[in-house]
Amino acid sequence: MSETALEARHLYKVFGRNPSAAVRRLKAGESRTAVADAGTAAVIDASFTVNRGEIFVIMGLSGSGKSTIIRMLNGLHDITAGTVTVGGDPITGIPAARLREIRRDRISMVFQHFALLPHRTVAANVAYPLELKGVGKAERQAKAEEILALVGLEGQGDKLPSELSGGMQQRVGIARALAADSDILLMDEAFSALDPLIRREMQEQLLELQQKLQKTIVFITHDLNEAMFLGDRIAVMRDGRIVQIGTPEDILMDPANDYVEQFVQDVDRARVLTAANVMERPRPVVAESAGPRTALRQMRDAYMSATYVVGKDRQLVGVVTDRDAVKLVRQGATRLDSIIKPVLQSVREDDVLMNLFVPAVESPLPLAVTDADGRLAGVIPRVTLLAALGPGPGATEEILLPMTPMPQAEIDAVLDDGWTAEPGPSTSSGTQGGFGSEAQVDTEEVR
After folding, report:
1. Global pTM exceeds 0.85
2. Is residue 137 a part of any domain in this protein?
């Protein structure tokens, strides 16, 4: 079970003449507009938890309350109602000195417009949190240089912020937050002021840093693609309320309401959805121990020109085609070993769709999807891959192959010729094309 780093419970923030009255009316069911005479309700009944080590993204349009809520998490905005706890310790109703201590030691913040001290050097800006903690000059200088190298600014410590580009200045802001060695980073539209290419570079660098440092990050953005790219989970806000919390895949594939559905309509699905999101049950699949007749029957009944072959532990072994299986049957062979070909293209469950197009083009079969242990988990036909990029259900039940299966009459003739059973469990002698018990066992084994 994940450890909770930060928790918000039933948060309200009202700016205006009578915040308490506004909260009472909101709790009684009145709308944000109806209570405007008492104050402006910026955040309404917001609850969420942030797990240790995750990137939790809060996103919404201007006026949704997202920037207000992040300032409630470290006490920059007083909370009208509700509670916030950091590692189980409340930040509401505590002495100001204790709140400053929590801000200094446990929560750092990165701002949209960098908030650097213009008269200090880059290194001095990064070292500033350590200075507040009373760390000695030599130690904080060494730490600043170490962190600057971590964010790609090695050798820039003696420059002033004005001598750096916007992207470099934002790196300084991140370095300053990291230098404090806080448990939690609050990032308020940290990349929104940057050009698109630099923004993407910063997003990728943040993920690289997160892999190394495993910080708990609350990230605010109005950019859905940014939220989908960065977030382990996302909270979508509208008019002060959280309307949905979920993984990027949850929000994209199962929006909570029409607003969220419209919001995600133009998102770049290829960067969000993974192979596991769109893969289908592989069919047919035969066990490595099966014979050519079993493989041929399954391909015929599924109207497929080939089948994947798996071992007893469902490890992906290779591919068998109907034409090769027919040759073995005519030769009287009872094992598939000689015709199993290697799988030229396979993908992992966590591969995003944008990385699947080249393998899909190069593969004559639906793409094989394997789990972390190399077991066959599913397949992705080209038609499914393309359908997943559009709105609505992303999969189709049909698996299409570019290679046309052999005529069924020709396969039937081969299978009916002598109807010789392959070694293994007893086979049924039922109607033409029926599966013997061996085929049934193999199918159940790999399903």
Report:
1. no
2. no
